[in-house]
TrEMBL record:
Domain (CAAX prenyl protease 2/Lysostaphin resistance protein A-like): residue spans on this chain: 202-299
Uppermost EC category: hydrolase
One GO BP annotation of this record: CAAX-box protein maturation
Keywords: Hydrolase, Membrane, Transmembrane, Transmembrane helix
Name of protein: CPBP family intramembrane glutamic endopeptidase
UniProt-recorded Gene Ontology molecular function terms: endopeptidase activity
Enzyme Commission number(s) from the entry: 3.4.-.-
Pfam families in alphabetical order: Rce1-like
Keyword Hydrolase listed: yes
Transmembrane segments: 6-24, 36-56, 86-110, 122-142, 162-181, 202-222, 234-255, 262-280, 286-306
């Protein structure tokens, strides 16, 4: 019973740390403190310390498969795997930057597409996630760690989990959004939303991109890659927590607004990452979180389109 409670306990502590970080950062920003960022980061660490503390105290967290028989890794091994996970994220963004730069330059030079148009932004998004895929593919080819790529046709049970996962993400998004509104917390906007508000048809273009590219390739990086690497030495629950925090943090660069308004968005993304990470750990099938992620984004784009066109 104790072990069963450790998983939600660790995640709850992490969530508390994220929420406290958001509130402290926002409050400090409103009061004009020049140490708002430091206060937010320090409070954020509370949840992470509790999650890792559970792991170090009990050696393993929960009964997420396969857990039995896993060796207790040294701190050096854990640190090395954490570094590898971070480097994979960096490689993904570097590859995305290279593919977008080279690909878009070639298309513009050939007269296929014009800069600063809707089509340009959509194609750039496509190239970005192709870059993600190339980075992970390169990592797997070099390391031969093909076991990280857990992909198969979803079972009936997994299809049910996909439906539950989408509802859980949408529900969590609504609850957290209402909570932040009630607390008068200013939340930054994603650049995709800003672009779509200027031209609502952009949201419609992004729906197939979300299903075919955003969901699969972001999950390939953060669940298949980062979470898969970390779970070998940190264990499944800490791997879920760490990869979710990293998943939230990388959204920082896609936002508009000041640091005080970006942190709440990052917090929400990290919380949603916990759900995706848990789904992947339970099913060991990357298709499940990828489809959930893509459909969740589709719902958001659909709602944004209806709102921007005055239909919702």
């Amino acid at each position: 019973m104790v072990n069963e409670l450790l998983v939600p306990g660790a995640m709850l502590h992490l969530l508390v740390g994220l929420v406290l970080a958001t509130l402290v950062h926002q409050d400090a920003s409103l009061r004009g403190s020049d140490r708002a960022a430091e206060l937010g980061v320090a409070t954020l660490a509370v949840g992470l310390v509790f999650a890792v503390g559970y792991y170090l105290r009990c050696e393993r967290i929960g009964d997420l498969p396969p857990d039995a028989g896993r060796r207790r890794a040294s701190l050096v091994d854990r640190g090395w795997d954490l570094l590898r996970g971070l480097l994979l994220i960096v490689a993904a963004f570097l590859a995305a930057t290279a593919v977008v730069g080279l690909g878009m330059s070639a298309l513009v030079g050939a007269g296929v597409i014009v800069r600063d148009t809707l089509e340009y932004r959509v194609v750039a998004s496509v190239f970005q996630f192709v870059g993600f895929g190339l980075a992970v593919g390169g990592y797997l080819a070099i390391t031969r760690e093909w076991e990280l790529l857990q992909v198969r046709r979803p079972s009936v049970r997994e299809v049910g989990l996909i439906a539950v996962g989408v509802l859980a993400l949408v529900g969590a998004q609504l609850v957290i959004a209402r909570l932040l509104t009630a607390l008068s917390v200013d939340v930054a906007q994603n650049q995709v939303v800003v672009t779509g508000q200027r031209d609502p048809s952009y949201f419609l273009y992004m729906i197939p991109v979300a299903i075919l590219l955003v969901g699969p390739f972001e999950e390939l990086v953060f669940r298949g890659g980062v979470q898969g690497i970390l779970r070998r030495t940190w264990g499944p629950s800490v791997a879920i927590a760490l990869s979710s925090v990293l998943f939230g943090l990388v959204h920082w660069i896609a936002l508009t607004g000041g640091g005080g308004s970006r942190l709440p968005y990052v917090t929400v993304a990290a919380v949603l990452g916990l759900v995706l990470g848990y789904l992947y750990e339970r099913t060991r099938n990357l298709v499940v979180p990828a489809v959930v992620h893509g459909l969740y984004n589709t719902v958001l784009f659909g709602v944004q389109y209806l709102s921007a066109t005055g239909m919702g």
